[in-house]
């Protein structure tokens, strides 16, 4: 039995445009982000998807809602485990501001950022639970760049030593006989 997961990063927000770290700050989609979500929903509308899960953060929920309406799926299930990495005190700052406040080595300082291993673990726990509870289904998961990227790096480390996830990109994973495969990575052909 094959379970298919479509991992989607939310649409663009004003903070994305400004280059600000968002983390768990609850920032809505901007006009461009709404347009991106509509374009992705139109792309997905020719496919069969059974369930939609979303991070509980507004930008992911808004993206998921646009897709849900287009696909005619009854409801969205939210889960805190697939929210973005907590960026601590750097949230709301740009790279230039971080360098001005904490110096060029700001990444090496303890600024309250959630550990990458912890982020990957909660992402993987969520995915493992999905394939058990919804085996054989086609599931969309609307989440965030760091959560998706870190989960992929730990799930398929040889394929993904590094990742970059674009806004409203689609990554498709399949799980068959205890084996994960990536069918599509970071696809934005709808944009």
From TrEMBL:
Enzyme Commission number: 3.1.3.3
Gene3D superfamilies with a match to the protein in the record: Phosphoglycerate mutase-like (3.40.50.1240)
Pfam families cross-referenced by the UniProt entry: His_Phos_1
Highest rank taxon of the organism: Bacteria
Sorted UniProt keywords: Hydrolase
EC class name: hydrolase
SUPFAM superfamilies recorded: Phosphoglycerate mutase-like (SSF53254)
MF term (GO), any: hydrolase activity
PANTHER family named in the record: FRUCTOSE-2,6-BISPHOSPHATASE TIGAR
The protein's name in its UniProt record: Phosphoserine phosphatase 1
Organism expressing this protein natively: Paenibacillus konkukensis
Lineage, opening ranks: Bacteria, Bacillati, Bacillota, Bacilli, Bacillales
Name of encoding gene: pspA_2
């Amino acid at each position: 039995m094959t379970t298919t997961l479509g991992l989607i990063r939310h649409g663009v927000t004003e903070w994305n445009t400004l280059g600000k770290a968002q983390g768990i700050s609850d920032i809505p989609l901007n006009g461009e982000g709404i347009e991106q979500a509509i374009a992705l929903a139109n792309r997905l509308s020719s496919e069969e998807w059974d369930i939609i899960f979303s991070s509980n953060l507004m930008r992911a929920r808004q993206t998921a809602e646009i897709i849900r309406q287009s696909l005619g799926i009854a409801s969205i299930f939210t889960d805190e485990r697939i929210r973005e990495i907590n960026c601590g005190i750097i949230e709301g700052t740009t790279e230039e501001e971080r360098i001005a406040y904490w110096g060029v080595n700001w990444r090496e300082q303890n600024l309250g950022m959630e550990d990458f291993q912890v982020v990957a673990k909660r992402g993987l726990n969520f995915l493992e639970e999905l394939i058990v509870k919804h085996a054989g289904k086609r599931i969309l998961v609307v989440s965030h760049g760091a959560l998706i990227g870190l989960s992929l790096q730990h799930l398929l480390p040889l394929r993904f030593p590094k990742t970059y996830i674009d806004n409203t990109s689609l990554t498709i994973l399949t799980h068959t006989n205890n084996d994960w495969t990536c069918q599509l990575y970071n696809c934005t052909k709808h944009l």
